[in-house]
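Figure 2 data, in text form.
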Amino acid sequence: QVQLVESGGGLVQAGGSLRLSCAASGRTFSSYDMSWFRQASGKEREFVVAINWSGGIANYADSVKGRFTISRDNANNTVYLQMNSLKLEDTAVYYCAARARTKINYEYWGQGTQVTVSS
C-alpha cells in the first residue's frame, strides 16, 4: 500500500504561483510513476502531468505546458507540482496519484488539495 497526502493548495490571484506537494509513505516510492490530476466543480477529473519513477521523463497536458513543472525527490518520497502563471481555469481539486511501473492504471490516490484562482 502507498499512502499519499497532498498539501500546498490555497487561494491565489490569476498570474500567481503555487507549489503543491505530495508526500508518499508505504512501499518504495521510487518504484512508482507519479501523476497529478485535477477535477473542477461539475467536471470530470482530468490528467495534468506525469513523471516516471526516476524523474527523467515527464508528460504534460497541453493546458499546462510551459506553466507547470513536476519534479520528484525520491530520497524524501515527495513529488511536487510548481504552478506558475495560474489562470482562473486552473481552479480545481488537485490529486496526486501513484502507479507501479508495470501498471497502466493509477492504484493509489491522495485526498486532494483545493486550488482556487481568483481574478
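Caption note: Residues 71 and 80 are 5 Å apart (CA to CA).
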